[in-house]
Amino acid sequence: MAKLEQLIQQFRSELGADFVSTDVVGMDGLSIAGGSIDPNFNSTDASARFSVVMKLAEKVSSKIGMGKVDDNLVTTDKAYIIARFIGDGSYYWGVAVTRNATLGTVRMLMNEYADQLWDAIPR
Amino acid sequence: MGMKGNLRDMAIADLIQNNCQERKTARLRIQHSGQQAILYFKDGNVVHASLGEQAGEEVIYAILRWEEGAFNLERGVKPPANTIKQNWSSLLLEGARRLDETDHENEINLFQSDPDKHLEANEMAKLDDILKEMSGEVTGYVACALVGVDGINVASHTSSKAANPDDISAQMTMLLKLVDASVEKLRAGVIEDNLTTAENAYILMRYLPGKQYYLGMAANRKTGNLGNMRLISKTYAERLAKAMPR
Prior knowledge:
The structure holds 2 protein chains of 2 kinds. Chain A is of the alpha+beta class. In chain A, 43% of the residues lie in helices and 31% in strands. Chain A has a 5-stranded antiparallel β-sheet, with helices on both faces. Chain A is globular, with a radius of gyration of 14 Å. Chain B is built from 6 helices and 11 strands.
């Protein structure tokens, strides 16, 4: 678990001031690592809510023949919220950043860290 | 030997064609809404027709519209007059042309008597045009739709027969609603769009102002471009919002 937390810290530092929250979440909606730096953004609630979103995304994508879901990006007037399946899909990785963040960079960093996070989950 | 039946089972055009092709000499009586039309066949043509005071080709054109009514065909009855000069196929062709013309006029009259309906039809066509135009600007374009929050398409366009916009919209609306509710509960701001990246496609949904409708678009995962999709969806969502019927 220490490795997982260490990777999350690294990821946070790479995002700098735009970082809001990140969690590695099981599909039961429970976070196994991470947290929010914004007291107004409850990462526990976010983890639970977005596990339902990801389950539904997977279901509808399969129904309409679009195949397996990789990620889901929500853009609000305040933030970008990205939820991305990792490994075999039994976990997802949620990241929230401010609207000032460079979306391309966030996605690039997530690509870079996704496999490392999966490998760091104790099994 | 004769034949009896109803126009529901055999149309007047078919009755004329059959009798003429079989070169029958016969009388065909057709009852429709208290009127009786009588047609006479001889030597492979309709040679006489009457309807009340009317006789000749105009009777054929008038009765081709009848879809209900009993008919009775009696063989061997000779025509009392010869009021039709055209051959049967020309008669049917001209009759079909007149039917089309009348249908078109009725459509125009309907719009003229109901200006709102005309306006609505024009506005809906405008939405279709905007979607079609947008399709040319999206890299890897697959399909797009303007969808109500009830999941029903207001307008749609697709480049692929495999993609059914109605099915996609119905399913994706559920996802957008869930994302919207989640964002609201988390107090993470007001949702602008949602982009799902799947194995075969990118699917973007962007609300129009008022959040009663959204623009959905799908692009091929291999050839699509996220930046292009987001930019185009933003531009066209504004145009669609302005073009929406009020």
